[in-house]
């Protein structure tokens, strides 16, 4: 069993000034985002009239509460949404099967005899938390899993500290689902960054290496560097990791349709041989606090046209419907 349990909280006295400590979350959201920006880049950002990609990411976190964003960090809702888009496009997009949904892992333990040997457990409403299983669990391992993952249904730092509103709108559940690939690591994931439904760039992440290697491409498949050479040592040569043209075109086509309702969103896929799997959607992209060089920060900031938050949305009932009720996994039917 391989697991990740989210960020580690600092101990006293660092906790008094650290964002994950007990005090930071009580500050006004705008001040929190300014302090996080200052901590990451050593300067104060312009969040009232943002121009760069990083600044516009902060503007979204502080201001955008439109209903169309409410379902995007709900893993079950986005799988349903992606399934609808793939069907409309007549695309054979693989979506990991959901085996079980709930809050009490003892319910899942009772279904253990029906689970495959390889599966993954994750919270429906969080990031950076998962457990990977590759063999049946003993009773002691189930107890360990329950102790580790029971707190995952609670509100966490994405909502309470970072102020990422959509995580708070997602249903607080645990999900057991199909594990993609057959190796120790997930297949390479391809992430497509879209602006109003138009791909701006994509990148792949090779997680079988340490550190993870990244390669960035224009929609036409031309590689470019992300960040200054001294800032990102993990920029990789494309090599044989660039997907075949037909697969790349499929990926961009599907991403474009999925991303159409959003001013900016990232659509994540896994590529396992010739099979394209849906991964997830990302609204906040590390909160806009990651390394990016000045040229790309300005270039992709210019592509991001911020929305009119007062404009009516005729699809609002559709977005609300994606968060209704609690769906059942295939082992619960």
Overview of this protein structure:
It is built from ten helices and eleven strands. The protein is of the alpha+beta class. It has a domain at 24-94 and 185-332. The strands form two sheets. A six-stranded antiparallel β-sheet has the order 9-8-7-6-10-11. The chain has a five-stranded antiparallel β-sheet with strand order 1-4-3-5-2. Helix 2 (53-63) packs across helix 9. The protein is globular and about 55 Å long. The mean pLDDT is 93.
What's a quick, concise take on this entry?
Helices cover 29% and strands 19% of the residues. With 333 residues, it is α+β, with helices and mostly antiparallel strands. The chain has a domain of 219 residues.
Features:
29% helix; five-stranded antiparallel β-sheet; alpha+beta; six-stranded antiparallel β-sheet; globular; 333 residues; 10 helices
**Strand proportion:** 15-25%
Number of helices: 10
Distance between the termini: 27 Å
Low-confidence stretches: none
Number of strands: 11
SSE arrangement, N to C: EHHHEHEEHHHEEEEEHEEHH
Topology, pairings included?
Blueprint: E1 2-5, H1 29-41, H2 53-63, H3 75-89, E2 98-102, H4 105-109, E3 119-123, E4 129-133, H5 139-149, H6 157-160, H7 165-169, E5 174-178, E6 189-195, E7 198-206, E8 213-217, E9 223-224, H8 245-259, E10 264-272, E11 275-282, H9 294-303, H10 316-321
Helix pairs in contact: 2-9
């Amino acid at each position: 069993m391989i697991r990740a349990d989210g960020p580690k909280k600092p101990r006293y006295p660092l906790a008094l000034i650290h964002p994950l400590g007990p005090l930071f979350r009580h500050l006004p959201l705008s001040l929190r985002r300014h302090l996080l920006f200052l901590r990451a880049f050593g300067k104060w950002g312009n969040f009232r009239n943002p121009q760069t990609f990083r600044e516009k990411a902060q503007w979204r976190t502080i201001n955008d509460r439109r209903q169309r964003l409410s379902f995007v960090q709900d893993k079950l809702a986005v799988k349903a949404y992606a399934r609808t888009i793939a069907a409309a496009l007549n695309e054979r997009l693989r979506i990991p099967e959901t085996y079980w949904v709930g809050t009490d892992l003892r319910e899942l333990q009772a279904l253990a005899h029906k689970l495959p040997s390889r599966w993954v457990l994750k919270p429906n409403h969080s990031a950076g938390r998962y457990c990977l299983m590759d063999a049946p669990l003993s009773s002691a391992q189930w107890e360990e899993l329950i102790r580790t993952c029971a707190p995952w249904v609670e509100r966490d730092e994405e909502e309470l500290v970072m102020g990422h509103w959509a995580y708070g709108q997602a249903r607080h559940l645990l999900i057991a689902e199909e594990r993609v690939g057959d190796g120790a690591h997930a297949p390479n994931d391809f992430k497509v960054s879209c602006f109003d439904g138009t791909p701006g760039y994509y990148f792949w992440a090779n997680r079988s290496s340490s550190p993870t290697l990244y390669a960035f491409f224009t929609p036409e498949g031309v590689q470019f560097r992300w960040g200054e050479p001294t800032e990102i040592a993990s920029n990789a040569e494309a090599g044989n990791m660039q997907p075949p043209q037909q697969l790349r075109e499929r990926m961009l086509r599907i991403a474009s349709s999925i991303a159409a309702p959003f001013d900016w969103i990232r659509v994540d896929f896994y590529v396992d041989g010739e099979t394209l799997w849906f991964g997830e959607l990302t609204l906040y992209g590390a909160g806009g606090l990651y390394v990016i060089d000045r040229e790309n920060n300005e270039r992709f900031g210019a592509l991001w046209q911020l929305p009119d938050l007062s404009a009516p949305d005729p699809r609002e009932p559709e977005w609300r419907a994606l968060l209704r009720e609690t769906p059942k996994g295939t082992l619960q039917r």
